[in-house]
Amino acid sequence: MTREGAQRIDELRVKLYEAALSSSKLTDPHVLRISEETDRAIVDFLLKQQANKKAACE
Known about the structure:
The chain is mainly α.
């Protein structure tokens, strides 16, 4: 799961970078939507990673 989550974050990072470059401003709704999606993916990844570490310790 960790590898898939990291891959998803990387894909979103590239998408966000491209959207930011093509937009006239960083507050463009399209850029913000991708940024929020990236944030959610990062938080999900970190929570799953934390849960896996906790389960390994038990």
